[in-house]
């Protein structure tokens, strides 16, 4: 994990070294182990280093090829770099360091833009070709490592974080109202927009080139990879799938242990992180593990089960790890919100402050931590979502059903009234079209429950998972910590995308038989939250973790905020959102907002995600804008 930045004046004017340093220094938390700069008149590259592989000065960046033609600034890890290095050495390439960065540089020299198709890892990088006077940018398949960019006339800026771009004196801080509307519909941003007008996030699984003298003010990106969930043409036996999944899972975890510093693991009490820890602990003696729990004295209802420390402690005992815990209480959220908003830069999916504290805990003991992210999205961990749109009349019917579910914060029926102060500026935005456009590259319309569910898996991997990855990167980077996600190993992902839906979910036959016109309560049949989901993965993970963990109901990493907002945090909610001076009232109608919040505080509707998002955006407006 590092931080990269760059300025490319495509009109040939020289880059300011002072400005480049300011941009790079804005991300010092991403790389406390070193800094580096490269300027070639109108092109400047910056780097902050978190030393993970080859801790020597030979890993310093930006790194220049021996021939002097190519320069790279790189963020991430390529786990198969040793195999690639061997291939390149056989082709005559000579290496000075033991870093994966140098392998990426030589891979580009050998294979050009096609090099990204060979990388198994997480990355965002830029390579400058001095001969062609051309800048190459790329981001990993899944978007584990972020990359932002903007055009300021003939100036092109890019960086790992938006705050680096904001350090440039010519960048304005204008709120993107279309992105704000998008966020308050989905609690996420599906497009490449950010909440800052003009600053875009570089798409995952893409590369781009920009040349000196170009007059373009938009970046032409090229997709080299995309998710493709589909039913296999030749179905194997369940036993064969189980054995292959077991092999690929162990391979993925072991691949991602490559490091010259200590590697730990989050241990949430759930199946995904527990299985990763189980495999990793066989390779790393006295492995360190980390859990964040919650004080439940003021919790109620389902939230009484949110603290998973007991399960995590039991697995730590089984795997003989060196285990550390932290307990979050009501009040910890408001205490951390200013720092959280600055590091997160803009809100995304979920209530992310527990992740901030978890990373803070892990960073006290290790530089690298393994996470269970991606397991749900790949293997069908949210069946109550998919079943809402598993039997449809046609594709438009599917879009309507799934779109209705993914209005996570404010439904369309309320959106216009809530955004009344700025509605004339955003009334042309149709969030259903934004939702539909996620499938723009999916040419074949589904016609069976399996195909509809594969479309839902595609959608959630492209949007929900991507949002989670962006949050995880920002909040771990805030503590100079690198998070790795073994479930997003290329071979394991390729396997998961071809695993039959029937081996992820068990209730497909029941769904097919349900008649929409039958009397009675059909909602329970479609929408009931069950223990279904990730079935083959559960079966295989029983080889590593206790049965009571693999058979437990799916639970996210969330604090009991629904209770806290109505109790010990109510004063904070009122002070932040109910006062006359709240910044958010410049964009939202005060009466409508108050009504929505009071419905939660009064126990009429559970709007914990909306309350959290409002608090987060209010802090964002004060810290970032």
Topology:
Layout: E1 3-9, H1 17-25, E2 34-40, E3 43-49, E4 63-64, E5 70-78, H2 81-90, H3 100-111, E6 121-129, E7 134-139, E8 148-152, E9 155-159, H4 162-166, H5 177-186, E10 200-201, E11 206-211, E12 221-223, H6 238-255, E13 263-266, H7 271-283, E14 288-294, H8 309-319, E15 322-328, H9 332-344, H10 353-363, E16 368-370, H11 375-379, H12 383-386, H13 395-405, H14 412-418, H15 423-426, H16 431-437, H17 449-462, H18 464-477, E17 482-484, H19 490-497, H20 508-513, H21 523-527, H22 535-541, H23 547-550, H24 561-566, H25 570-577, H26 590-601, H27 608-623
Parallel strand pairs: 13-14, 13-16, 14-15, 16-17
Antiparallel strand pairs: 1-3, 1-9, 2-3, 4-5, 5-6, 6-7, 7-11, 8-9, 8-10, 11-12
Structural features, described:
The chain is α+β, with helices and mostly antiparallel strands and 625 residues long. The protein folds into two domains: 3-223, Glutamine Phosphoribosylpyrophosphate, subunit 1, domain 1, CATH 3.60.20.10; 238-380 and 448-550, Rossmann fold. It contains 27 helices and 17 strands. Helix 7 (271-283) links the parallel strand 13 and strand 14.
The biggest sheet amounts to:
6 strands, antiparallel
Q: Estimate the helix proportion, in percent.
A: 40-55%
Mean pLDDT: 90
CATH topology category name of the largest domain: Rossmann fold
Number of strands: 17
Q: In percent terms, what proportion of residues is strand?
A: 5-15%
CATH top level of the largest domain? Answer: Alpha Beta
- CATH homologous superfamily annotation of the largest domain: HUPs
Radius of gyration: 24 Å
> Strand order across the biggest sheet?
2-3-1-9-8-10
Q: How many domains is the backbone divided into? A: 2
Derived structural class: alpha+beta
Q: Assign an overall shape.
A: globular
Q: First CA to last CA: what distance? A: 26 Å
Q: Architecture of the largest domain in CATH?
A: 3-Layer(aba) Sandwich
Number of helices: 27
